[in-house]
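Pasting as-is:
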Amino acid sequence: MSMNRRQFIVGAGLAATGALVPAGADAWESKAPPDPYGCLTDVTRCIGCRKCELACNEVNQLPEPETPFEDMRVLDAKRRPTAGSYTVVNRYYPGPLDDRGNLVPSFVKVQCMHCQDPACASACVTGALSKKENGAVHYDVSRCIGCRYCMVACPFEIPAYDYHDPITPEVRKCTLCFDRIQEGKAPGCASVCPTEAITFGKRSTLLDLAHQRIANDPARYVDHVYGEHEAGGTSWLYLAGQPFERLGFWEVPDAPMPKRTESIQHALFSYLWSPALLFGTLAVTMKLLHRNHDDADAE
């Protein structure tokens, strides 16, 4: 009997909480720039030379890696970007055999995807992360308080924390070479790629190019442009000749990550009375639960 009464009170509390959500709370609007810059990586053209890693290291003045860029043995380690390396290349063997019966490798460059509506920027409580008109998800270290909410929010697990600097630690990730784009230059990785596996340009132009390549050579490519819709769309796009799930790509929903979280925040805090009424309702619910528990013990 006491359990039924408790369930009734909890249900009443949840119903009261749900009543706090004002009508139209789901009217979320995207903050994505209309046609930002971005990069298209054609996995079928990448040869795993790691020149993009070297260029990224030099442009961003990052520390020298423990393993030299000429050492290709690291390609099979399935690395992720770190505070000291904004981009890495991994090697996979998902596909067909060559003439000698050996598996043909595929090389995948990994870096920040620069989402159109980035979850990291939505989670940042100080505005240290923001989506810029040129396509970059920009980081302002002067605003960062080190909460690391961005690391939790990112669906691609990209932001890394610089734990080695106890005085002024930073969140580190690919910048899309923000300063170079502002100067009219392409990102360092795109400028140095010897096989032109990385194409820099306007996102709309890159999408047209990607779909044109698929249409012109359907046997070469999977009929999917990764990043066109994932997480609401990203400024970094991919073409591949094998299913993306075999190449280490994350399976993420098409809806922008901030859409649900920002709608909930707006619903609860758009009016000053919402937090007070919410916590008041929860307090009354907990008090009634506690009283019923005491009555049951007395019995």
